[in-house]
Amino acid sequence: LSGETILGPSTSNILPELDAIGILAVAWEWLVLMALTFWVGILVVEGLILAGVERTSNLLAETHKRARPLQWLCLTALLVGELITLLLRTTQLSQGLHGSGIDLAALDHILFETRYGYLWLLRIAFIGIALGLLWWTTRSRSNIGDARRTRTAGRRFRQMRQQAQQIQRTTQELGSGPIKNEIATEENATPVATSARSFTIIWLLLAGLILLTLVLSGDVAALAQTPMSAIMLDWLYLAARCIWFGTIAYLGYVLLPLLAVVEPDHHSEILTIVLRRFHPLMLATLGVFLVSGIFLTETSLNGVLQFTTAPYGRTLLVEWILIAAMILLSAYALFTLQPKLSRQTMLLPVVNAELPARRTRQTALDQTTRNLKHAFRVQSWLGMAVLLCAASLSFFAPPIVFPTVDYTQPSSSSTTAPTTLNVQTQEVGNLAITLQILPGRIHYANTIIVSLKDRSSDNLITGAEVKMSINMVVMDMGTSSTTIKGDNPTYIAVFKRDTAFSMPGDWDIGLTILRPGKAPIDA
After folding, report:
1. Which of 8, 188, 291, 297 lies at a C-alpha separation of 20 to 30 Å from 171?
2. How far apart are CA 499 and CA 280, in angstroms?
3. Could you tell me the residue ranges of all domains in the chain?
4. Measuring CA to CA, which residue among 17, 13, 33, 18 is closest to residue 313?
5. Crossing angle of the two packed helices 104-113 and 115-165, in degrees rounded to 10
6. Is the pTM of this model over 0.70?
7. Tens digit of pLDDT for each residue in 12-43?
8. What is the DSSP letter of 402?
9. pLDDT reading at 319 higher than 90
């Protein structure tokens, strides 16, 4: 379970079986990442790039109209995706423990007894707050629009009445009417723009908190040696990735097509202004993304060979190849197409509109704009592939280096290994039973690993049922019991810190081994 610290072979880098539930889990995780990324892109473009510039005020007003349904779609997809992802994780956990479908007891355990569940509930609360805030801002804009239409209707009625009284005065008023309408529209639009700027910080704060819950419930926070720095860098990595991918997707699929409709005569000039504001944000985001991403890659893998030997490493290698292609396209767009677009925009008004050279320059300018739009869209496709790799990384556990201990071999060859590694081997009948406790410390969640070996054939025994009970020797602290079943030669049980090994002293671990057709064995 993501976010739960579990030691032992269950967190090794062995490739899990990607069944139908696993495929659905990856697909819904991918949907959640895409919805979150595009939503952050909308917030960044409207709140940081378009806001505060007079030339882009009309474009910002139109993008608000287009972005509102997109924000509803993204937040709804994020909420539904989180709910379905939780159900799929519960199903996977139930199948791993009991071999059956979804278990409501397992769902209750995940939600109210694990760190993942607490963070999931907090994330759902933040998404609910974002939906409520979006509903409130949409309602406020609708009320302002209704009031504006009411004032417009009243103004038209007064003009008709004045026209019946005095034709000459009405003619003058009709001539000045559009000017008054424009002034009134600007006055009414000013509070809306101010309100939108005031909400930008709240929107970005909500997005940052949602990303923080994802980081705290991820593998990096659970497995890193330096959790505070790793959590900070992982949050920066996710934030930079959302800003980079989401902004490019919004520019390529929403802003550039809309710009040609809203500003048909000045779209190249406004596009130049937008790209000039986008350039430093893009460079800063890319720098943060590379620094944090390289650090997280080094902490996740223990060597270059794991890029090819571990499933986690192979997925990470594909992700970095896609990121390299995106960086090349971003460099082409920012350092080749953007200067070319600025130069062509400056030279276009120099030539008279009736001359053939003007049409030639306009054609070249339109071609540069199309190339820029294609570059952004191709980067969006590559970004979707990167997010698919990220969803797969959440499915494959990072490779972990375990102690060089053979759980099936007796520990008599070393006098210090059983003490330092908490390993004991006991021979009962024709069985050699090896038991190891990780990490073997009080006030910690401890994992007990049991392996069974037939002494006569030296074969590992599978298909047994191991009943385990733990209590303190000198004091009755309450017996903690569990039963382990399965076809794996290694039998693993996890005891939370408040159920066993809760105080210093000697603890007794009792085992009862049941095999089909064999007498029970106690150890």
Report:
1. 188
2. 54
3. 218-401, 417-522
4. 13
5. 80
6. no
7. 334 445 677 778 888 999 999 999 999 999 99
8. P
9. yes
